[in-house]
Amino acid sequence: MAIFDIKLPKSIVRALKLPVDAAQRQQKIVLKRLLRKAKFTEFGQAYGFDNILMNNQSLVKEFQKNVPIYNYNSIYKEWWYKTLEGKPDICWPGKIRYYALSSGTSEAASKYIPVTNDLLRSNKIIMIKQLLSLRNYQYINFKSIGKGWLTLGGSTDLQRGAGYYAGDLSGITTKKSPFWFQPFYKPGKKIAKEKDWNKKLEEIVKKAPEWDIGFLVGVPAWTQMCMEMIIEKYHLNTIHDMWPNLEFFVHGGVNFQPYKKGFEKLLGKPLTYIETYLASEGFIAYQSHQFAEAMRLAVTGHIFFEFIPFNFENFNGEGELIGKPKALTVHEVEEGVDYALLLSTPAGAWRYLIGDTVRFVNKKRCEIIITGRTKHFLSLVGEHLSVDNMNRAIEMTSEELNISIPEFTVAGEPHGSFFAHHWYIACNQQIDKQLVANTIDKYLKKLNDDYLVERNSTLKDIYVDVLPEEIFMRFLKSLGKLGSQHKFPRVLKGSTLEEWTKFLSYGK
C-alpha cells in the first residue's frame, strides 16, 4: 500500500490546500484564528482579545502591546497551574487532557506543556505536508515509503494525573495517531508502551528480523545505538543487511552533523536525511526539499511566530530576558541574525519564549536553522560562543582528523586570574586530545571573531577530555533523562555542571 494513495480525512485535505502567499499575510490569518478561538478563555478575557480583534489593521501591534512575553515559569505560575487542577477554559477552550513532559536540557524538574487536540491535529497536517514534499525528491526509492516506519519515541503508557495524562510528546502523538498510519507503524503498541528505554531497545532488536523498514524516525544518538545493537546481535556488516529497503532517516532535536560520520559507518548505502523541528509546543519547521540545509518555518500552519534578536541588549549572561524588548514578526527579520523564538499556539501558549534560538538563511522561503538555546552559550569574557559555532567546529574537526565525535559538551572555568573552556567529547577511537583541542580552537577562531579576540587576551586556554560515549548516556540515566526525548546539553552551567563534575569523580 503506497502512502501517497491513502484517502486522507477531509479536514486535513482542506488544510493542505492553504494558498501559498506572503508569510506576513498568512501569519496574520493564523493569529486572528488563535485569538478568535481563545477570546472567551480566562486569558483571552484578561488581555482583551475581543478588543484586539476589532483592530484588524493593527492586529499584530495590538496583540504585542497588550499581551506580555512569557517563559515557562511565568505562564505556569500565572495560568497553566489552573489547568492541572482540572479547570477549563484557562488559556485555551476546554479542559487540557494531555501534557507533554519536557525537561529541556538544563532543567531538573519536569515541565508540563499543554497538548490539545487542536495542536495534535495541526501537527499532523504539517507532518503530512512534509511527507507529500517527498514527491519532489529525486534519486530515491519511493517503494520504501510504503514500508515500515520504525519510530524510536517515548512510551505510550502515559502517567495518569487528576483528570489528565502526561508523557513524552512522541508517546502522546503515537497513542493518538490516525488509523491509516497503524499498518506502517513499528515497533507496535506493545513495545511502544514500554517505559524502560533499555528494555524497549532490547525488544526492538528481537523483533527487527520480522520487519521491512523503510523509515527510521528518532534522535540520532538513540537511533545509532539501536542500529549498532541490531548489527552486533545478528552479526551483520551493515543495517541494510537486515533492512534492504531502508531509505529515509527522519531526525530532529539536535544537530545531526556530529553524529553523521559514525552513523554512516552502519549503512550499506546512503540514506535520505529529513530534518524536522517538532517541539513539545508544536511543529515549528520542516525540511521541505531535498538536500536542503535549512527548514521551512510552518507559517501557514497553527503557530504565530515572533522573534527577539538574541544579543546582550535583550538577554543577560544567563540567557534571561532583559526588560521589554521589541519582538519582530516574520517579515521584519533579517538573514544571518540569531533570534530567540516566541510562539503562540492552539494549546494556550501565548508569546511563549520557547528557549531556542534560530537564524534565517533564506527569508523569502522562510527557511531557518536552529542555532542553539538561550541558556546554552558561552560568553565568560565576551567570546559569544554559540551552539552553532560549537557544532560546526566539531564537524570540521571530525572531518580533518577522520574521527567520530557523536557527543560533546563545554563548560567555562577559571584559569588563574583569567578563564578557559573545558571540552568533554565522546570518541571511542584512540586520539591525541591536545591535537583535538588545537583543531577545535583553530576552527572556532575562524568561525567567531569575538572568540579570536578573546583567545588573545582573557580566554587563556581550552582543554579537552576524551570519554567513551557510554559515559554521556550514563550521566543522562543518572538524571532520569534516558530516552528519545532527552538530549545532552551542549553547554554545562550551574547545578548541571556540578552534577556532571560529581558524576565524573564518583559515578563512572
TrEMBL record:
Xref: PANTHER family: GH3 DOMAIN-CONTAINING PROTEIN (PTHR31901:SF9)
Listed Pfam families: GH3 (PF03321), GH3_C (PF23572), GH3_M (PF23571)
Organism of derivation: Rhizosphaericola mali
GO cellular component, as recorded: cytoplasm
Name listed for the protein in its UniProt record: GH3 auxin-responsive promoter family protein
Segments forming domain GH3 middle: 301-362
GO molecular-function term, one example from the UniProt record: acid-amino acid ligase activity
Occurrences of domain GH3 C-terminal (ranges): 389-493
